[in-house]
Amino acid sequence: MLFFFVNAYWPGYGIAVTQVLYIIGLFVVLKRCQVNPYWALIPGFREYHLSRCCDREHEGRVFFVLCILSLVSELYLIINSAKDGSGEVKTISVVTAFFLMLVMFAAVGEFVYTIRIFAGLCDLFGYSKKYLWFYFLFGREVMLWILGFGNASPKFIYLENTNGEGAKLSGMEAETLESGLTVNIEERTVSEFFKKRQLLRDIHLNIEPGRMVLLLGGSGAGKTTFLNAVNGYEKADAKITLNGIDLYEEYAKMKYNIGFVPQMDLMRVKDSVELTVEDAAKLRLPTFMNAKQREERIDEVLSFFGLMPVKKSLCSKLSGGQRKRLSIAMEYISNPDLFILDEPDSGLDGVMARELMQGLRKVADQGKIVIVITHSPDRVADLFDDVIVLAKDSKLTGRLAYYGSIEKALDFFNTDSMEKIVLRINREEEGGEGFADMFIEKYAEVCHV
Amino acid sequence: MSDNNVNAPVYTNFSTKHRGRLAQIPIYLGKFFRMFVYMNDWTVIPMAAIMALLVAYVTREGIFITMEGTFKGTLALMCVALWNGCFNSIQVVCRERGIVKREHRSGLHISSYMIAHMIYQMFLCILQTVTTIGVFVFVRIEFPVMNGIITGGILVDIAITVFLITYAADMLSLFISSVVKDTTMAMTVMPLMLMVQLIFSGGIFSLPPSLDGLSSLMISNQGLTCLCIQADYNNLPSTSGWTLLKKIADSESADPQVAESIMMIENEGYDEVIRVETAKANFREDYVLNEDNIIVCWVLLSGSILFYAGAAVIVLEFIDKDKR
């Protein structure tokens, strides 16, 4: 709209004026979000950095790709048009039509992703989503000027503090246990979108057989990444041993000795309970077991998890709790030494969740290591032996803030509940107290003593 | 949970062996055949019968009788096979992507999973082919009166081609289903894929020579070519030329001299000559009935099957990279 308005008064200047206004708006918004404002001059990158301000990095990446696609296609069309000499497209070849289609596709995509990024910026600055109408009616320039020159300030600064040092390294190393799990993670990094991100760093601990361990941490602290690194699914710069055997080196063999229960109940719902467990057994149990031994084991596990009455039922007929137990039974069938569960109590009420955790306690009592992530730790805290607390340090890297018994954890964090531990280590912009670095360093000191 | 102590022996001893690639295939075959019964996968068979019935009724006047009827009829038959194949497998992998990821973590070999799918889909495609040909026979379509050039039976030859088209389309859809992350995306991509197949089939639009190479790689193009060869397209009479002339003669707005000339041609018995000449003009080199041409089409269709299945395995091997 602004473009047409400007063009009506100063014919030919529409693009130039709107671009200048857009860059100024971006410059101010990026500056207010503590990002280098000169990114506003580079197409693609500027929208990417804008998206990072409001925690919409994925949208920013897609926008960047669409922007490159659009630029390349437009460049081809301009060169092609220049070759023609007349500057007009007389006949459209297949290739030209293809690039025209790409430009259209990119334009629609850019429009949609701009809406997503601006919606995120509205949240960041505390504006109602109705403000998006300024974008629809007057253009992105006007929207950015409102955000940049309005009275509202960004509620949070989401961006990584790259100048920060993060918490100090502990300098520890866990001694390899002959029986049990030893974790020595130096770091776990991922490379994405031209940059390397450190997800975990400096995590060293030993877990003895028979322990049931609670894994605690705020959102994005790296709990699932930690579990994936521990079970060898996503390798880190680490040495993980289970019963003295290097898990990374012998992953192909060792994976059968680790049970991982994902958060979702991933099973074919139109299959029966018995056949679901039987197929899991065929996959996970060794070949030396004959059909009779396998059947006995299936009945044993179904009975242990209280699923015998529904043995012949379809999985779709099970209740939430039963499905969860079936999901656990599928992993437990191979009697693994290390048992890892990612939020097994999600979607369950208090009674069912406690019943489920009591079952896991029994698994641990058989000499297994059980590690559990849960977002409602206080209702089942008494069932756990130890707690691992992961926290994001000032560099947003997952670090070990505590590992030890539940009682000592409450003392260590000077609080009376597990959920308050999470509050103490969460960043201020996440509604926490922001003491992660302090506790990470305090734990390292305690360990050295 | 029960208080029974499950003190099972250590099954995961370091030296124990687990099921390899070959031994895992029956596990998944069993699952898929159960899905055939419980998840209503069997509905693809009556669907194939309905589609074949509709096409058979519409095309039965001309298919395998005249050049034009054969071309339209084989195009429709190819479309039935193509759509049957696509609908069989477009959702099968993406709808259980999370489950496959979990099972991959528990020791599933992706190649075993895909081979099981290939066997199961082959079973579906055979049933659909038998159904389609059965419906054509039931509707009393007049198949070419000659021996099949490869197997000796014309019905068997045509059935093999229909099966290969269905199975190749099935594998293409299986590949798409392995690439996309959810069923919504799969159902968005599928019409696009069908459009590309139809455009490049050479049956609806005449394509520029520069696209011949691309077109010959399409399942639809090879399928249509093979069916036209088997129908002995080049030796069928053509009616289009004479029908057009008759239409002109019957038109009220036609020049009386032109109409009179056309009537004279008919009266003197030259209409048959025009039919023969039109057939000569419609002659297509790639539709010449011989063993080599059919074998080339079958090899290309089989190549497509292997290519798409292989690509699906490779793509699915990266399933661990899926985000939570």
Any overview of this molecule?
The complex is a heterodimer of chains A (449) and B (324). Chain A has 449 residues and is α/β, with parallel strands linked by helices. Chain A folds into two domains: 2-149, no CATH class; 181-448, P-loop containing nucleotide triphosphate hydrolases (Rossmann fold), CATH 3.40.50. Chain A contains 16 helices and ten strands. In chain A, the strands form two sheets. Chain A has a six-stranded mixed β-sheet with strand order 6-7-8-3-9-10, sandwiched between helices. Chain A has a four-stranded antiparallel β-sheet with strand order 2-1-4-5, with helices on one face. In chain A, strand 9 (386-392) and strand 10 form a beta hairpin. The model of chain A has no long low-confidence stretch (mean pLDDT 87). Chain B has 324 residues and is an all-alpha fold. Chain B folds into two domains: 22-234 and 285-321, no CATH class; 239-281, no CATH class. Chain B has 13 helices and no strands. Chain B starts with 20 loop residues before the first helix and ends in an 8-residue tail after the last helix. The model of chain B has no long low-confidence stretch (mean pLDDT 89). Chains A and B meet through helix 10, helix 11, helix 12 and helix 13 of A and helix 1 and helix 4 of B.
In short:
The complex is a heterodimer of chains A (449) and B (324). Chain A is an alpha/beta fold and 449 residues long. Chain A contains 16 helices and ten strands.
